[in-house]
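Appendix B, example 12.
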Amino acid sequence: MSAVDTKHRLPVRKLVAASIGNAIEWYDWTIYATFSIYFATQIFPKDNPQLALINTFAAYALAFFFRPLGGYLLGRFADLRGRRAAMLLTIVLMAGGSVAIGLLPTYAQVGWLAPVLLLLARLAQGLSVGGEVSNASAYLAEIAPPHRRGRYSSFFYISTGISVLTASLLGFFMARSLDAAQLASWGWRIPFLVGGALGLVGLWLRRSLEETEQFEQNKAKAKALRNPLLMTLREHPKAVGRLVGFTMLSTLCYYTFFSALTPFAVSKRGADPVDVFLALSIATVMFIALQYPMGALSDKYGRKPQLLVWAGATALLVVPLSTLIGPSVGNLLLVFCVGSGIYTAMTSVAPAVMSELFPTELRALGIGSWYNLTVALFGGTAPLVIQWLPGTLFFYYVAGAAVIAFLVILGMPETKGDELH
């Protein structure tokens, strides 16, 4: 280990402040998918539970299509006004949407106004998350020394994992404490209201963040740009193509193992909700624990080898894993642990890889727009598609995306240790 590595001290306060804010964002986003099976018939007509669940997922998917707009608007805002200001704005939007959902009137009380209000709250959250991913990624990458960018980037999905674990544990304890009728009647509101309260904590913590030097040095360039979104296509087409290629698989992995499998295992494979929440919680602890070591490995051996292992292993294993989903808690644990464990090879370096694609004056907008468009197309529809496709066909769909991502990654240059520009 070099003297530089030995003497370096992580700016823990900065990393924790940025990461806790991101955790709250993703907690709010995740609980919608996790608790959808309980509130679907409260917000939509309950005479057809399957249709109510599909409509709930349709609102989930539609909100994803506002993510690219949020990524563009809040990404451009971050490139012009700073990462810190943009991250404060995103957490206000997300927490506000969470409180609104927690206080929604039911379909029985106000009719079709209930799903309309749900959709409006989800759209605000869609705009928020669209800006959050790009701005937090840019912030973590820009404050990191080049030889430690993988380590710094790992904090992004440490925070994401913590948020998923919080939502999963809450679901586990609520499933143990409340019966199905209580969860459907009022229990589902609790996680959303908790998310709003946590948003206040995140807002306070993010106020302490300092702006990045990288932004300060390049904000004049950002202000001078005209048609910046078109510029990403005209001057950085390979970067856009690569971002879309690996994000397609990344978002399918995330929404498969951390969102879509929960209602799928319960509604289609007869799994006990308590067992599903338990297995997901244990796997998520492992997911969090692997982030920093995997980020450190990428700083030593490179981003590209890890990404190739992730895409190749997913292509080979996702279909066999899908056949194990069922009432057995042991099988559920195996599926969640193997799937999320492989995924850490990508998540630990995602902010670094994305930030290394674009120059500083286009970084937040470039990531925000194209990342979120890809997530909208593939992640936003994942829970809907997994409910619609019969048997294991959805998992062949994920395997196909893994093959495409593998080929895209093969053509990428190695970027570990490179200076951001």
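The first helix runs from residue 3 to 7. The chain has a mean pLDDT of 89.
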